[in-house]
Every structure is written in C-alpha cells, then in structure tokens.
Amino acid sequence: MDRLETIVKLARNSNSVADIGCDHGQVGVELLKSTGVRHVISTDISEKCLKKSEFLFASTGFQSEYDGRVGDGLKTLNRGEVDTVVIAGMGGDLIKDIVTYDIGKTLSFKNFIIQPMTNPDVVRETFYKLGYGLEKDLIVIEGSKYYFLMKFSSLTDKKLEKDWFYTSSLLRDSIETYKEYLKFNLNKNNAIINEIKLNSSEKSDSRISELKSNNEKLRTLLEEKVEYK
C-alpha cells in the first residue's frame, strides 16, 4: 500500500476533509471516488497548484463536492469546518508550526492525518501536547524511501508513549517495515561516517559523533524495542 492509498484508508470514515498543501489534488479526488467522504476542501499556498487541483476535480466530475482555496496552513479554514485535516508531504517542523499557529482553530478539528517528510518524532510530540490521541502510526515504502503516516484523533484516548521515535501502534502495525527502516538508516549513517572520514576536520568530528550517537539509538530500537506484541 502506497502513501495515497494509506491516506485514503485512514480518512475513509470522514464526512468532510481538508487537504492542506494539496498540490494537484489527488488525495481529495481519490477520497470522493472510493470512500464516503462527501466534501473536500483543497488548499495550497500556490495558486498555480490549486488551479491544477481544480482542473482534476472538474475533469473527474467532482466539481460540486470540491472547494479550492489559496492560502497558508489552516488559515483558509473556518473552525470546525471539516471532520478531518490531511497534511502530507511537509517537514515535521513546518507541520508543528501550522498546527500551533492558532491552537483554538486546530482543536476544532476532530482528526488529523499527517505524513511528515522529516522529524516524525516532532509531529507525535506536538499532537500529544495538543491533547490528541494517536489512533494509527504506520510506515510505508515507495521505491527506496520510507514514509510515516499517522492519524491523530480527539476521540481517541491520549496515551503517553515511551519514546517519540517509536510507538506501540507503529510496532504493532508496521513492525517488519519498521525494522527495514531502522537498518536502512543505520547503513546510511555508516556510509556517511566513512565518507566524512576522508575529509577529517574538527567540524566533521562533531558530525561523526552525532551520527554515531544516532546509530546507538537505532541499534537499541532494533535490539529491544521492536519486540512489541
């Protein structure tokens, strides 16, 4: 299952969805085609991207179920306007900025489906502090890249996880892929360390130390944490 399919699966029980940073609008169209979602709001900071989204909805016959808006983050939405907000393809720190800009508005939405390109730990911690429960935490592979997908819900019990780098849901539902992800990053870090050693300097020594520390974390997760049942 790829990212698009996983997002659609996580959002399938919603009545209305806002796709933030919609790009060409594929998420919204697929939701209307294959789930019970009745209305989609697609937003993007780029008017050019939004026009492509508008064309896709019109060409697939969903123009009346679609609302396109140019704007940044959640700013184009009214409070409680949709059941579910999708934010996919952005960095974890940017996602944090988006959902903490107007916390009152953020809390008016029941569900968030998040696919961060970086720093998934930042996303988990942010939504925990906002009071959301983590309903699903998955990892999928597309080509040679790994992507985390999370569903946070105000209707799910808030649970404190031991570590923002892994969760019980992640280990339960994506354990084999997660093991592969950990090994991939361990090998990547080792390759970077070997490359840096060819051009050793005081600055590069600091980077090597950082990567080795990261590797210790990865080894600990591989050896101990992935045994969740």
TrEMBL record:
Give the protein name, as stated in the record: tRNA (Adenine22-N1)-methyltransferase
Which superkingdom heads the taxonomic lineage of this protein's source?
Bacteria
Q: Which InterPro entries match?
A: SAM-dependent_MTases_sf (IPR029063), TrmK (IPR006901)
Under Gene Ontology molecular function, one entry of this record is:
tRNA (adenine(22)-N1)-methyltransferase activity
Keywords of this entry: Methyltransferase, Transferase
Organism whose genome encodes this protein: Ezakiella coagulans
Q: Which Pfam families match?
A: Methyltransf_18
BP-aspect Gene Ontology terms: methylation
Gene3D superfamilies cross-referenced by the UniProt entry: Vaccinia Virus protein VP39
